[in-house]
Amino acid sequence: MPSLLDLLYGGLLTAWIPRAVFESCVKGKSRGGWSQKIRGTVPTRQGTRRCVWLHGVSVGEILALRTLVGSIRKRFPEWDVVISSTTTTGMGVAQKSFPELNHIYFPFDFTWSVKRALSRIRPDVIVLAEQELWPQFIGEADRRGIPVALINGRMSPRSFRRYRRFRWLTRKILRRLALIAVQNEDYAERFAELGASDSQLLVTGSVKYDAVETDRKNKRTETLRKCLNIQSDETVFIAGSTQAPEEQFCIDTYLKLRSRFSGLRVVIVPRHPERFEEVASMVQRKKLPLLRRSEMISRNQLSPPEEAGVTQPPVILIDTLGELASVWGLADIAFVGGSLSGRGGQNMIEPAAYGAAVMFGPDTWNFRETVESLTNRNAIRVVKDKQALQETVAYFLDNPQEVVRYGKTAQEFVTSQQGGTTRTVDGLIPFFEEESNRRHSPHFRTTRNTGSLASR
């Protein structure tokens, strides 16, 4: 019999379908895995080995899981690992990042889809990344005696206010989690106020700092540098994870500055695949030469094609999935998107880790703590609009020593924050050990949270 939540979800899904159809038909936005999501018909896991199910909602969370997956597989090689994502782009990155593992779409929080997916995967441990608090999924796992851990947890002020309105339900959900491993003390305080107990909480730091590359000469970045024909004496300005109108801002910045700085190269990496064609058309309308990464891959080109009569370097459009982490290693100057479009910003840790001079707009509430830390160290520049973006890029081009200073300061901050993966795995170990797997029950709670709040 459907629950009240099933009826609520059904109403929301029905209301959302027209928008999804519009985005698919008009904008080309791909949404896959409908049967797995709505009915829970994920592929049945074969064999009888113990299993951990790790879930990241989209690209950022999947990429953050890389070091955690590697550490778990190293410590517990006899376990099966299943990776799930909610979005099509997240699934694509999961398949590329973990080609040897099982990949599924995470079921919507309907009673039937949750039960069917859990029965088919048969996990012994479930690990959810960041803020995936689905009441029926967590409740059904709890009833089956499967410990569920929330890792790399975060709770922004906006989310906190929303969850606090339904504190009675939030507390019930949180108390069913075996472990709540959060990124910092502020998040721990908010989870505690919403109902989490001291024994559940563990402050680990963010695993995203461990998942980033700091060496610009890594193989993937060096291969991209060669393929895109970027020379050592050129200054590379990369705009990554962009959303409208940020691509236009960056193209206009390049047009304004290219005559003064002949060695300037620009690379654009849109956040959403359905906008690749739109951005390509935007570049072409400006009469600029364009190099698309997808076309190079489809033609198996190892270097850009030479075009007769074209003397200026092309604008580079990275219209592929899963390459931004390596592309950032090419950046001298980096603009992180989603921050001039009211979307809360995207991950600025990756370009900072490479030592790029990082900029972003004022809308960065998704990464408030990271932004505050970088700002306090004078390691980033905040640009409030298109004009400020142009002025800041010009400033960096006129002052290359400032590019080096900003980049070094940002990189030092990132490396100082690493270690979250080790602390997270240490917190998860009780659920993997033989004794803990025999003992787990709907009321089992770990007592090994040595990093929990000392003040309580």
Key structural traits:
single chain, 456 residues, alpha/beta, seven-stranded parallel sheet, 14 strands, globular, disordered C terminus
Work out the helicity level: 40-55%
- Total strands: the figure is 14
Number of helices: 21
Question: Based on CA inertia axes, which overall geometry fits?
Answer: globular
Q: For the terminal residues, how far apart are their CA atoms?
A: 42 Å
Major β-sheet profile: 7 strands, parallel
Cα Rg: 23 Å
Characterize the structure shown:
With 456 residues, this protein is of the alpha/beta class. 45% of the residues lie in helices and 14% in strands. It has 21 helices and 14 strands. The strands form two sheets. The chain has a seven-stranded parallel sheet, sandwiched between helices. Strands 10-11-9-8-12-13-14 form a seven-stranded parallel sheet, with helices on both faces. Helix 17 links the parallel strand 13 and strand 14. The longest helix has 22 residues.
